[in-house]
Amino acid sequence: MSAELVQKACDGDRNAFGALVEAHYGFIHSVAWRWCGTELDAEDIVQEVCIRLGRSIRTFRGQSAFRTWLYTLTLNVVRDHQRQSARRRRNEDRIANDPIFFAHLPSEEDDRGDWLWAAVRRLPEKQRDAMLLVHSEGLSHAAAAEILGCSENTVSWHLHEARKRLKDLLKKEAV
């Protein structure tokens, strides 16, 4: 990989940036796959690396080899992805182990999260948004209220109503 191509990409040359991504795509994918172990996660990570690369290519100063810099960027995205996945699993477990839902969810661990989030996506918009912000994203009621443009009490009410509706949905699905 020529230093000239890297420099052109750093200077904003879109064609050079495209060539740089194309030249390193396999490297990024193989690093992502080795760290996460699944094709789907590796593809998600590669996409995010390409987005971040586009945002940060101009900060590359050549103090290390471009590939070393790219490796660091890729590992940062992998770590972020792993943290997000762990947070999502914790939140799914928190909901799935709620006594309201526990008896109605599938016994297979992998199926629980998929089934639960499919049911959440079927909720009315405000209930769904509150559930996703608080339980999937891990936000506080106050932060969710700010995003939704309502009070914390309203978020709490939407969550309460969502739990009741989910309980009914999950009972019907389990039958």
Question: What are the defining features of this structure?
Answer:
Rna Polymerase Sigma Factor, Chain: A, 175 residues, elongated, Arc Repressor Mutant, subunit A, mainly alpha
Overall mean confidence score, pLDDT:
82
CATH homologous superfamily label of the largest domain: RNA polymerase sigma factor, region 2, helix turn helix motif
Q: What is the approximate shape?
A: elongated
Portion of residues in beta strands equals under 5%
- Specify the CATH class of the largest domain: Mainly Alpha
Biggest β-sheet strands, sense, barrel: none
Helix and strand composition category? mainly alpha
List segments where confidence is low: pLDDT < 50 over at least 5 consecutive residues.
Answer: none
- The count of helical stretches stands at 9
Order of helices and strands: HHHHHHHHH
CATH architecture of the largest domain: Orthogonal Bundle
C-alpha Rg, in Å?
A: 21 Å
The name CATH uses for the topology of the largest domain is Rna Polymerase Sigma Factor, Chain: A
Helix percent band? over 70%
In total, the number of domains comes to 2
The number of distinct β-strands equals 0
Intertermini distance: 59 Å
Family: Belongs to the sigma-70 factor family. ECF subfamily.
Domain RNA polymerase sigma-70 region: 20-87
Keywords: Sigma factor, Transcription, Transcription regulation
Protein name: RNA polymerase sigma factor
